[in-house]
Specification:
alpha+beta, 11 helices, elongated
């Protein structure tokens, strides 16, 4: 397995490469000049001009870019037939949205592969908000360990995140809890007694047996194992029709669920007048690196599937983010093209350029803030 940092850089660069490739191919298709197709962020380490385009490798190995003639408005030439701004609105729309399309298609194809490899069941999704998935059949998985209390007997026994508690045994008494309430009831009153806990990890499939002695918890007023339990769901695509469209419908499920979770976090932040919940729901490059590092620690054959699943999720996220009608993003640029398409009049180049400059500055500040938040959590 590649080191976590190298794997993170490869994943991020590959997803951005796919995105920029969409812009590149569509621009070439409509006769727009592409000045440079770069991997990584400048300064340039190496470059070679082939035809009219410079293909470059840059020193900062994160992401990439395509420099399309006329897209930034500073090199607009009304007499240049290869200039982006001189193309018809529908052609510019395709060029701007092609990167989003490529990221979405990649996610769909990966989800097809993962679902087919897993008996047409999705990877477990942590329940963070009440959401009615429009496609597939929901399979609920209860009694999953979402957290282990520091210095607890559960931590000392080696209980891991993602362990699903299947069976509890005390002497000759055994019990298979169907809900967290049943599990709590069984453990209550058994402080000081050794409980054998049988689990199966939802991420790795590893089965374990832990011996844990519950201790009395003053906060909850009962004996406790020292774990935080939660629920996860799997989406099963059962019928031939569901399987045929599973890659597309699962992508829609994930996007819809993501918006639902973010909406819930925003609502909580508004009610509590605290930006903390929203901040916790957003991750930048450092947060993504943390996710990659966690996956590489899983071990076993499932780690490769987990990496592909993360890549599909990130690709979807990249597509949705760029579709937002915010200046400097592809969606924001498309808003100006769409307004021209509808009204028949070009918007002010100075106004559009200023909007994208302000939008880029806001995005840069946002990324810096999210990065600092991820760093503070990463080194806790």
């Amino acid at each position: 397995m590649l080191p976590s940092l190298l794997l993170f850089l490869l994943i991020l660069s590959f997803l951005v490469f796919i995105h920029e490739l969409g812009h590149f191919l569509s621009a070439r298709k409509f006769g727009v000049k592409v000045d440079e197709f770069g991997i990584g962020i400048p300064p340039r380490a190496w470059g070679k001009k082939i035809g009219e385009t410079i293909y470059s490798l840059n020193w900062l190995p994160i992401g990439g870019f395509v420099k399309i003639r006329g897209e930034d408005l500073d090199d607009y030439d009304p007499n240049d037939p290869q200039n982006f701004m001189n193309k018809k609105p529908w052609q510019r729309s395709i060029i701007l949205l092609a990167g989003i399309f490529m990221n979405f298609v990649f996610a769909v194809l990966v989800f097809y592969f993962l679902l087919a490899s897993n008996g047409w069941k999705s990877s477990p999704l942590v329940v963070l908000a009440d959401y009615n998935f429009p496609f597939g059949e929901r399979v609920e998985i209860t009694n999953v360990v979402m957290g282990v209390a520091s210095d607890s007997n559960a931590e000392k026994a080696g209980v891991k995140f993602g362990d699903r508690i299947l069976k509890l045994s005390v002497g000759d008494l055994s019990f298979e809890p169907k809900s967290s309430e049943e599990l709590i009831e069984f453990v209550s009153g058994k402080e000081g007694q050794e409980i054998e806990v049988q689990t199966e990890n939802i991420n790795t499939g590893v089965k374990s047996i832990y011996k844990i002695i519950p201790t009395y918890n003053d906060e909850v007023k009962r004996a406790a194992l020292g774990v935080q339990l939660g629920e996860v769901v799997q989406l099963a695509y059962v019928t031939p029709l569901q399987k045929s469209f599973a890659g597309f419908t699962h992508s829609v499920n994930i996007v819809g669920y993501s918006f639902k979770v973010m909406g819930s976090l925003i609502s909580i932040s508004v009610d509590t007048k605290d930006v903390g919940p929203v901040a916790q729901g957003v991750s930048g490059p450092v947060g993504i690196f943390g996710a990659v590092q966690s996956i590489t620690k899983l071990g076993g054959s499932r780690v490769y599937m987990a990496i592909l699943d993360l890549m599909a999720l990130l690709s979807l996220s990249l597509a949705v983010m760029n579709l937002l009608p915010f200046p400097a993003l592809d969606g924001g640029r498309w808003v100006f093209v769409l307004s021209e398409w509808i009204s028949g009049r070009k918007p002010s180049p100075k106004l559009e350029a200023r909007a994208h400059q302000i939008g880029f500055a806001i995005l840069l500040v946002f990324i810096v803030l999210v990065t600092f938040k991820d760093i503070s959590q990463f080194f806790i």
